[in-house]
Specification:
This protein has about 55 residues and is mainly beta. The protein is about 0% helix and about 75% strand. It has one domain. Strand 2 and strand 3 form a beta hairpin.
Length: about 55
């Protein structure tokens, strides 16, 4: 499993906003049928985008 992540933010006196991104990749083998030697190669990728907005009172 391999993960890349990063983010950036901005803040003023009564307001802040943050943005983040992460990507996770994974490679593995999975048995197709129980008791069988055939394996499927699985390549997966997950992307996450996160946005946070805040207001201070």
């Amino acid at each position: 499993m391999l993960t890349y992540a990063g983010g950036i933010g901005y803040r003023e006196k009564h307001l802040f906003i943050d943005f983040a991104y992460s990507q996770t990749t994974n490679q593995y083998k999975l048995g197709v049928f129980p008791g069988n030697s055939y394996l499927a190669n699985i390549d997966s990728k997950q992307n996450n985008f996160i946005l946070t907005l805040g207001i201070k009172f």
